[in-house]
Amino acid sequence: MSEQVEQLSCQELVELVTDYLEGALPEEEHLRFEDHISRCDACTIYIEQIRQTIAVAGRLPEDALSPEAERELLEAFRGWHSA
Ligand SMILES: [Zn+2]
Description:
The chain is mainly α. It has helices at about 10-20, 25-40, 40-55, 65-80. The relative contact order is 0.15. The structure holds zinc ion (ZN).
């Protein structure tokens, strides 16, 4: 068995995004986060959209990370991955 670091799933990434954008993730988590983004188009686009939203609104809107928004997002991801 390898001792490879377990990769983040898209769902874990979504759950960590607020901490990531606030610079609140521990270094190891931060690296795993960026590693995931580097190989996942859907999450790259998701992060870009959130960054743009923050740039426009000046802050992260509450509803951007509501459970409903998360679920829609994850369903969109599944569509991407099976395409
Ligand atoms: Zn992803």
